[in-house]
Amino acid sequence: MSEHDFTETSEFLADEAPLASHPVINLPPRQQAEEIYTAESLPFPLLPAPFKDAELYQISSTTFATTEVGLDSHSSLYNLEYLLADLLSHSVETPVLAFGFGGHGFASEAVHYYAATPHAIVLVQARWGSYLDNQESVRKAFIADCKNAALIIETAQDAAARNLLPAGQRLVVIESFRSGRCMAWLPSTPVPFHEEAPDLPWEASSAPTLFGHSMLEELSQENPLIA
Question: Are 79 and 71 in contact (CB under 8 A)?
Answer without folding.
Answer: no
